[in-house]
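Hey, can you fold this one?
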Amino acid sequence: MTDTALDAPTAPVRARSVPLFARRYALELRQQMALPKQALILALAVVAGLAISAAILVAAGVPANELLNEFVMQTLVDRQSLQAVLFQAAPMILVGIGAAIAFRARFWNLGLEGQMIFGAIGATAVSMFGIGPPALRLPLMGAVAMAMGMAWALAPALLKLRLAVNEIIASLMLNYVAGNFLLHLVYGAWKDPKDSFPYSPQFRAFERLPEWFGNPSTAAIGLAVLAALGATWFTGLSRAGLYLRFVDASPRVARALGVPVARMVLAAVLLSGALSGLAGFVVVTGQEGRLTQAFYVGYGFSGILIAFLARNNPLAASVVAVLIAMLFVAGRNLQVFYQIPFAMVQLIQAILVICVASSDFFIRHRLRRVSRGAMEG
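Sure. Predicted structure:
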């Protein structure tokens, strides 16, 4: 090569333009996303779910201009509808918080309905056998309901911790055992002798939740709010709540750091069962006034949905529970006025779950555009 060739100016290198069809996308895990962005993505997912649900309802025959009126105005302005929302919201808050606490310990408690059933059975047993003086009967019924809920939650917890049995299967199957035991009671020894219908004798006045300020749902909502505040302190301010954060992040790392993982899981599951048992107590002493054969239907799935939407936050679970209760009450109104089947309400719940689950993908991942030329280089 000559010196002239070395001294010759080099031609400028031009960047190659990559055609649009040659671009590729790489899926990457996010290290962390700011909480405001997470809240925005979650809100957009909920809005998308509501939009899909609205389209389905319009296609089913509900006028588009009546959706806002049915789901917001009629449920919040009308006194009877608002009372029905509060009635529905109180047990939903309790089961939602119970599910959230268990999920924080990475224990997927799907036995909420079974724990509700045994809580209600325990409360009814106190009434039927006249345990305790009348002045203390109602608190005693609540305490026994919580104890029975804890006892029914203890079985899948021990199976998980001692024998490594999958808690999803164990807790879910125990729901059927509890449901059949309930049918055995209301169709058998506990059947009301007055009319022989499959429910227990009616509770006496001092065995019912009291009406505060002329509203029978106030006491139930008061219990739910106290439970929400207590759960918020437990998960956010107590030492046990700090341990649960470690367990939720990584049980192996928590165990290596000296966190009593097994004890924390057991404590979370027992507290979850106690809250579910208390929800059963609220339903039978507040809404039903007796033990019935289907008082628990729908609460288990709703509790899981509430915990999932609230990201296992007790205070957020309380707000979500009220919204889900509004959905239930509005669904019943749609049944009456537009002949919409109640399965449509359950479909809306499922759509919301799918949309929120999809939002978790965008929170944990991101798409980065990569050109083919860069990939080859």
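Residues 1-18 have pLDDT under 50 and may be disordered. Let me know if you want another pass with a different chain boundary.
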